[in-house]
Amino acid sequence: MSGKTLAAVAAFCLFTLFIIAGTSHAASPDEAYNKTSSALYAKAKQEGELIVYTVWDVEHIVAILQGFSKKYPGIKTTYWQGRNPEIVTRTITEFRANRASVDAILSDNAPPVLRAAGAIMPYETAQKEALLIHDPTMPVVSLQVQALTYNTKRIKAPELPKSWENVATPKYKGMVALDDPMRAGPLSTQLAALKDFWKDEAKWSAFVKGLKALNVPVHKSTSAMFRLVIAGEYAIAMPALLHDVMNEKEKGTPVEYIKTATPIVFPRYAAVYAKAPHPNAAKLLTEWLISPDGQATLDSVGREASRKGFPSKTSIENAYGTGTQPVAVHDKLFMEDPQKWLDMHVKPIWAK
Amino acid sequence: MILTPVVIVLLQSLTTTRLATYVGFTGENYLRVLTDPEIFSMMKNSLLYAFGSAVLGTGVGAMLAWIVARTNTPGKALVELMPLYPLLMPPIMKNIAWILLLAPRSGILNNFLQQNLGMEEQVFNAFSLSAMIWVFGLACVPLGYLFLLPVFLSFDPSLEESAYIAGSRPMHTMMRITFPLATPAFLSAFILNFLRGLRSFETPVLQGSPAGINVFVAKVYDSMSMEFNSGLATAYSAILIVLSIAVLMFYVRATRFSERYATITGKGYRVKVIDIGGWKYFTFFAVFSYFLLGIAVPFAVLIIVSLIPYYDYETFMNFFAHMDLSNYRKVLHHPSFVSGLYNSLTLSLATAAITVMAGIVMAFTIYRTKVYGSKVFEFIGTMPLAFPPLVLSVGLVLVFIGTPLYNTLWALGAGLFVAYFPYALRNASGAIVSIHKELDEAAWVHGARWRHVFFKVTLPLLKPSVAGALFYIFIEAIRNIDVAVLLAAPGSEYGPVTLFDYFRVGQWGEAAAGGVIYLIILIVAVSMAKFVFNVKFSL
After folding, report:
1. B86 or A152, greater pLDDT
2. So what CATH class is B3-531?
3. Do B506 and A116 touch (CB under 8 A)?
4. Residue A20: what pLDDT?
5. For chain A, how many structural domains are there in total?
């Protein structure tokens, strides 16, 4: 055997060993879940309890906690439900008073604010490879997906806007209902996401100015606005949430979403409270929610999956087609202090 | 108990900033409030909305109370209950129903007029200041009615009879004699409705913001929901406190010669109703009209919405073809619909009883004793009403968080007590002023002690007011979400959370179904109490 051949064989053997070694360290998300959850479950059972604060509907949280208890018996679960400002206010007040009152917080807007106040215990999920959006301190268990939605009785296909920025043209004056861009709601989230995504200040400013120039009703309640679009008061909702649209379509409601408008996504977290009395139970809940079993439970109540390629009716792949890249919100300032972000970026244009 | 949470939140406004960060003494929050260029226009909208609603609600309530108490309007038993039923419907349900009725393009009334009468213009607009006043004003009527009814019922008829003898006609007598004598109770109800209007948020959010009508209280909510700064929210609320003090000072000044307004005197008399002749059919029609607009029409809209898969005018008008019960099935299978309602029942009963009694004791102390500085309690007792519920909740949480009472029913009960005490106090104040001091004085002269005067003289005379206040506070407390939310312990829902959840997430069909079930339970309970057990809500 020549020296060259020997060197090639040695290199091949080394490469194979490297691959094997690499594979054995980077376990698949499912394997990582099995391993982590076994260790967490043993400790969580000793803790014996799990307290959750959530913004999600009571029906949803009850179904989720029932699914969790079925998989992991022996852990008593209780929940408290409130809106985001109430969750932030209650948790921060308890945190400042040094109370070990809650374990996990399931919400969208509240966890980043609580993290900024130091009230969140950083926890990185073992299944990070499986996620569409990953945050190393708070596991993303679901996504809030925004869809450009219209009433099929009020506007016909040829007249439809093709993208979000299309809506900001005079043609749609009198047809659109806007979520208030000056509150921490879906439209301001969209503006934060698009600003980051376009990286084109002029384009972004023109978009906000275009929306303002429509001079259409501005709603502080996105859910009421969506109902009025269904009722036919407006033709286009700017924006609506994908799970609401899918839900309504199943009932035969005259709404549809525009697939050419890129979906905008905002993470829904399961965060662990910094002074959690049962931290292992909280971590186990977050891991279970990301697992295929947990994602199926979320899907059963109509919540969007956060796992890549998860087959659900509200998944981005299913709703928009394979390969669709959503636009996500990454702006730290927007997530932690929406008022400051809006005052800096939107107010100078909107309040003129 | 009332002052502590109020003082704590006020202190927060001087010591804390964003995310409840303690910074020592600071005037930053107040500086921001005072330099905010938006507050004047917002306050103008708030004042117009609150004043309009309070005038409409208290005025109509007073008229209805006079009709029920002082006239021979036919159908007495029904007429007495009709103004009370609208109270049973939560305000947000009324908002949704009226939006569906009055929306410019999709509303039932505009579409009906366009399709049946060929009218092209949109006559009604749910998203306008007048529609906001209409909807919230209708919701203010029961409070005016309940505050004025006991006054008219215990009215010494000799005052009116003197007017008749002098040749005055019934309507003239009503305007010149009857109503002026009811001024304290009217002002009490008016102040409460006005303050409710100033801090009301749902109607402005749902009906005002689409028309660009932003109210002052939105600043408080933005401070809480976007800046998470309860100190700033309290600083904004301080403006509401100043306004509350101003209207209360007006009240105290207007009723400072309380003897002028005493309608219950030591003279023996029988309460008589006035024969208003043919007008009695008109007064019946007036009561019935309020019943229709206050509850029957919005209730009918909600019933239909609860039976169809989604609302649009076409589906609404052809509801027989689209009818199904899926919304009801969903609500009844909801994990906390029944338990939430049940949990709140006992606590609301206890809250109503304790709050009303405490309100009477305080009003008695203010108006019937010579305790130094007792007048100041008139302001302190009404102060919780100046705070938007979430701000008040924070104060209550801070009171209890360091104690073993936190996360217990006691803290929740105390929170409800603080939230509803202003209603009990204002009700009792208005009623006590209408009782002439000569009755107490007669008892004092005969050697009675204060407790004898209170329990044997004042309390029995206040019975009609007590019944009305009990009923009102019970109904309000049973559906309270805002104050209770931060004080409810994990695992124990309070109130019909489900119902409000559905409204919040925009599932109006399910919300309407839940609302219909909730209303039917309450209407049956009230009707049974009246007709089967002969409970007197007002008489």
Report:
1. A152
2. mainly alpha
3. no
4. 44
5. 2
Q: Provide the shortest C-alpha distance from residue B12 to chain A (in Å).
A: 12
Please report whether residue A125 resides in a domain: yes
What is the dihedral angle through the alpha carbons of A161, A166, A171, A177, rounded to the nearest 10 degrees?
A: 80
Q: ipTM of the predicted structure?
A: 0.83
pLDDT for B174 beyond 90: no
Query: Is residue A118 a part of any domain in this protein?
Result: yes
pLDDT confidence tier of residue B427, bands split at 50, 70 and 90:
confident
Contact B355, B420 (CB under 8 A): yes
Residue A76: which CATH number? 3.40.190.10
Structure tokens at B128: 């306008």
Statement to judge: residues A134 and A45 lie in one domain: yes
Assess whether A100 and A237 both reside in one domain.
no
pLDDT value for B23: 84
Q: Give the residue from A214, A218, A238, A216 showing the smallest Cα distance to A226.
A: A238
Query: Token pair of B510, please?
Result: 């399910």
> B389 preceded by cis ω (within 30°)?
no
Nearest of B255, B289, B133 to residue B183 by alpha carbon: B255
Is A38 found in the same domain as A126? yes
A133 and A216 assigned to the same domain: no
Mutation to test the A interface, candidates B201, B226, B387, most A Cβ within 10 Å: B226
Confidence of residue A23 (pLDDT cuts 50, 70, 90): very low
The three-class DSSP label of residue A253 is coil
CA pair distance B202, B192, nearest whole angstrom: 17
A287 with A297, same domain? yes
Closest Cα in chain A to B95: A224
Q: Three-state SS for A146?
A: strand
pLDDT in tens, A178-212: 999 998 889 999 999 999 999 999 999 999 999 99
d(CA B518, CA B511): 10
Q: What is the DSSP letter of B175?
A: I
Domain housing A137: 29-142+268-313
Of B53-57, B81-85, B252-256, minimum mean pLDDT range: B252-256
Positive or negative, the CA dihedral B336, B340, B343, B346 is negative
Q: How far A305 CA lies from chain B's nearest CA (Å)?
A: 19
Asked whether the beta carbons of residue A79 and residue B313 sit closer than 8 angstroms, the reply is no
For residues B238-272, one letter each, b for 16 or more C-beta atoms within 10 angstroms of the residue's C-beta and e for the rest, the string is: bbbbebbeebbeebeeebeebeebbbbbeeeeeee
Residue-wise pLDDT tens digits, B209-245: 899 898 988 888 888 888 888 889 889 988 888 888 8
Find out whether B58 and B144 touch, Cβ atoms under 8 Å: yes
Q: Among residues 192-211 of chain A, which lie with CB inside 8 Å of chain B? A: none
Considering only the beta carbons, identify the residue of A89, A218, A230 that sits closest to B209: A218
Q: Confirm whether A43 is domain-assigned.
A: yes
Whether A282 and A343 share a structural domain: no
Instruction: Using CB atoms, pick whichever of A90, A177, A233 lies closest to residue B486.
Output: A90
- Does any domain span residue A160? yes
Identity of the residue in A79, A223, A227 whose CB atom sits nearest the CB atom of B491: A79
Give me the percent of chain B exceeding a pLDDT of 70. 93
The pLDDT of residue A4 is above 70: no
Is some CB atom of chain B closer than 8 A to the CB atom of A92? yes
Cβ–Cβ under 8 Å, residues B288 and B297:
no
| Closest Cβ opposite residue A184 in set B225, B336, B485 | B225
Ordered by start, the domain boundaries in chain B are 3-531
Q: Which residues contact B211 (CB under 8 A, 6 or more apart)?
A: A217, B125, B127, B128, B129
Check whether residue A136 and residue A285 sit in a common domain: yes
> What would the pLDDT profile of B240-263 be if each residue is shown by its tens digit?
888 888 888 887 777 666 556 666
Whether A301 contacts chain B with CB within 8 A: no
